[in-house]
Amino acid sequence: MSKKFVFSSTEDEILIEYVQQNREIFDSAHPKHKDIHFKEKIWKIFSEKVGRTDEDCKKRWRNIRDTYMKQKKKLSTGLATSEKVNRTLSYLSFMDSVEYERKTTSNVKKSRK
């Protein structure tokens, strides 16, 4: 069973700041985004700065990113969000310039009506 980890809001802010400064972590269009060895070095540096393991930092980043994407969708539907969520959304606005949704193709033809 995995051990639960809890990041403080200060640790979250530090992590978000480091990710923002290293676009190759969150931008799939970045030339180094697929360079696993390069990104592992970056995560090691992050983990030292935050004081957590690199795996914990990666998990926490994925959680922050996924929560951000869900909250953005909720905002587009007009649902209310908490003050804490709004603060986090403002920290992550740098990710708005990145396209996350994958384009899909299908071999099923649309029916004409």
Automatic annotation (TrEMBL):
Its main location: nucleus. Residues 1-65 form the Myb-like domain. It comes from the Eukaryota. InterPro entries: Homeodomain-like_sf, MADF-dom, SANT/Myb, TF_Adf1. One of its GO terms (cellular component) is nucleus. It is found in: Nucleus. Residues 14-100 form the MADF domain. Pfam families: MADF_DNA_bdg. This is Transcription factor Adf-1-like. The gene is LOC112690213.
